[in-house]
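Please fill in the sequence for the structure shown.

STRUCTURE ENCODING:
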């Protein structure tokens, strides 16, 4: 397979999120790690807001919501997510 063929395979792999090289595996690991860090950041922000706005009687209900949101976030972590979907998700997150 020539250089053109390798470049085409790498390009298709990069678009679809299929690791075709060592760099592809590192990118896949980065995507998973970034999704985990986003969940931890969301949890941290929610707990900070909760602790600064604790009202009597609502603390347990709010912690239940935080727990549900964390579980949903962790279940949403996907190593097979395509690079395009990952980039769009990150763009929406920060803009």
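FILLED IN BY: designer on duty
SEQUENCE:
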């Amino acid at each position: 397979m020539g250089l053109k063929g390798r470049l085409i395979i790498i390009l298709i792999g990069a678009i679809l999120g299929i690791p075709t090289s060592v760099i592809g595996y590192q990118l896949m690991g980065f995507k998973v790690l970034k999704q985990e860090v986003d969940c931890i950041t969301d949890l941290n922000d929610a707990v900070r807001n909760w602790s600064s706005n604790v009202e009597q009687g609502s603390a347990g209900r709010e912690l239940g919501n935080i727990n549900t949101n964390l579980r949903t976030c962790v279940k949403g972590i996907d190593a097979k997510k395509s690079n395009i979907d990952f980039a769009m998700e990150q763009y929406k997150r920060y803009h």
